[in-house]
Write a structure and sequence with these properties.
With about 130 residues, this protein is mainly beta. It is about 0% helix and about 45% strand.
Length: about 130
């Protein structure tokens, strides 16, 4: 089983930036993607961004495209989510999760159904 630990959340003013980290315990995870998800009370968990580890292709939901950037550091088994121009509606608990990539060249899905292992989340609050 893979363990994931998120960090980097906190309180930030609208328009500000945060960088979240997801530390992954698996020594090699080349056949995986890492997805970032977020959830607010009473709502379903939604996919925000994901990155295919093997080739660093990234995908975003429409509401964050152009503001968020997902990246990975294979040497440290860490995936990052750089969040810029934050808005109040970005407030949520952010989670990272693994998704197995079965076919080379496949996209990651941004769906919870295909995610396997999850971290415990980190709170992001955007407020003045």
């Amino acid at each position: 089983q893979v363990q994931l630990v998120e960090s980097g959340g906190g309180l930030v003013q609208p328009g500000g930036s945060l960088r979240l980290s997801c530390a992954v315990s698996r020594a090699t995870f080349q056949n995986y993607a890492i997805g970032w998800f977020r959830q607010t009370p009473g709502k379903e968990r939604e996919g925000v961004a994901c990155i295919v580890i093997a080739d660093a292709r990234s995908f975003y939901t429409d509401s964050v495209r152009g503001r968020f950037t997902v990246s990975r550091d294979n040497a440290s088994n860490t995936v990052y989510l750089q969040m810029n121009s934050l808005k109040a509606e970005d407030t949520a608990v952010y989670y990272c999760a693994t998704e197995r990539i079965w076919m080379p060249g496949s996209k990651c899905s941004l769906t919870t159904q295909r995610s396997e292992d999850w971290g415990r989340g980190t709170q992001v609050t955007v407020s003045s």
